[in-house]
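Readers of this paper often ask what the protein records in our data store actually look like. This encoding replaces a full spatial description with a residue-level series of whole-number codes. For reference, a complete record is included directly beneath this paragraph.
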Amino acid sequence: ELESGRSALPALPAVVAEALQLANDPEASIPALVALVEKDPPIATRLVAMANSALFRRGVEVTDIQAAVGRLGIQRTRDLLIQVAYASTVATGFRYKKQISDSFQRSILSGVATRALCQALGENDTYAYMAGLIHNIGESRVYRILGGFKPPPKDLDLVADLVRRYHNVAGAELAKLWTLPEQIVDAVASHHDDPADVPRHVQLVMAANHLVDAALAPTETGGDDAPDPPVELAVGIAEKVIEQVQEAGSAVAA
């Protein structure tokens, strides 16, 4: 199915694709982004809802897209629009719903961890949240492909193994279809490679995943399986990121 080239490959909504381009324009303005998002009322509604979620809410509730974008800023609005697009692919899974939902929720925490880690280390965080969020998007795609089989596999251990084996290839194809930035495609395609052979921005995603594991332990047993963190971290930095992930986890669960 993967080799067929188009299986379970959803198109990126036009508004999100345009927002990605706009966010990379140094001359872009918040009013221009507001005008763009308002073209798609369902997406605008979801963005306002996320701006009011426990993960992003600060003070007074926002009621329109202009206030939401003003609160979030251009970069975070772009990141959340990608999250909206990712969430729309999650909603299309008719089988393995719990596994797909768990993967998506963990992806949000990976985004939080990657951004927090980059900020703590003084690294460029322009695409940090997006890289952490999207790097495992291939998991939900493989689940959807398997769910479309007649009959779908019932052995969940087998399903999990197939997801582990193929999600990076499945996700990279989707990231390329969506013409996401090269840094994001790298993170999707290479996050299970040898840390010594991948760029720094991929190493940071790998390290963020270790911190998500630590934040979720002992209840979380899955996640990336690299034996050692690929980035050497001071204890204080690791603890700070873990704390932020735990706070985000409570917000996501709510």
User: Anything to note?
Assistant: The mean pLDDT is 88. The first helix runs from residue 14 to 23. The radius of gyration is 18 Å. The chain is about 65% helix and 0% strand.
